[in-house]
Amino acid sequence: MKRMVLMMATLGVWAALGATLPSGYTEIEYVQSSGKQYVDTGIIGRSGLEFELDVMPLNTSNDTVGMGSRNGTNGRFYVFAVASNKMRYGYADQNGASTIAVSPNVRYRGIRTVLHVGEQSISWNGQTYSRTSTTSVSTGRNMNIFSCNNNSSDSATSMRFYNIKIFEGGTPLANFVPCRRDADNLLGFYDTVRNNFYVNATATP
Questions:
Q1: What is the pLDDT of residues 119-157, one digit of tens each?
Q2: Cβ–Cβ < 8 Å for 91, 62
């Protein structure tokens, strides 16, 4: 059985989201990967998406991608990454650390990433790092949580996600709520937009 590593936390943190899970699922505070698991979002990394994240990176010195997909050197679509103790994202052929400092084992609420043609940015706590590209990107691959889906090679990282929201033109595509399936205690994210449960996609528990 595929299971996600979890540091258990009490219910109640996400009440403000207005997300109601169906019977049989219990909200938890976060889901954490050990660096060997990832979750397939079922959504292709492509231009025109916006994201709201609540995340805790556990290693910020190495070059890691917490969520994204990629198709070759000029086909990056990194929603959230870290490198050299800076927040980072990647779009098309652009790649590199932002000017927003990040520390390990610190929770960052309200991160917003915009990956549109001509408007790419990552923002947190009033700080924004932006670049522009007129290139339209579609990786043709689903974005992963806890890794980058890179040419079918999924390089997972150790990170903790408390909530992930995905929008397209302001329309909600996904709202990933950390939870436990009561029947078998399987951990993952329940998407309250598509009404589906997303779990570890690897054979590593």
A1: 899 999 889 998 888 889 999 999 999 999 987 666 678
A2: no
Residue 121, CA atoms < 13 Å, CB-side half-sphere:
11
pLDDT digits (tens, 9 = 90+) for 25-35: 999 999 999 88
Return the C-alpha torsion angle 198, 188, 40, 158, nearest 10: 180
Contact between 116 and 124 under an 8 Å Cβ cutoff? The reply is no
Structure tokens at 137: 């990107």
* Global confidence as pTM: 0.89
Which of 156, 174, 155, 152 lies closest to 165 in space, CA to CA?
Answer: 174
The alpha-carbon radius of gyration of the chain (Å, integer) is 16
Q: Which residues contact 124 (CB under 8 A, 6 or more apart)?
A: 87, 100, 108, 110, 111, 112
Q: Is the confidence at residue 9, as pLDDT, over 90?
A: no
Q: From residue 95, how far is each of 16, 112, 168, 195 by CA, in Å?
A: 34, 17, 22, 33
Per the DSSP assignment, residues forming a β-bridge with 191 are 176, 196
| Cα separation values, 147 from 58, 94, 153, Å | 13, 18, 9
Task: List the one residue out of 65, 67, 72, 31 whose CA is nearest residue 49.
Answer: 67
Dist CA 33 CA 45 (whole Å): 21
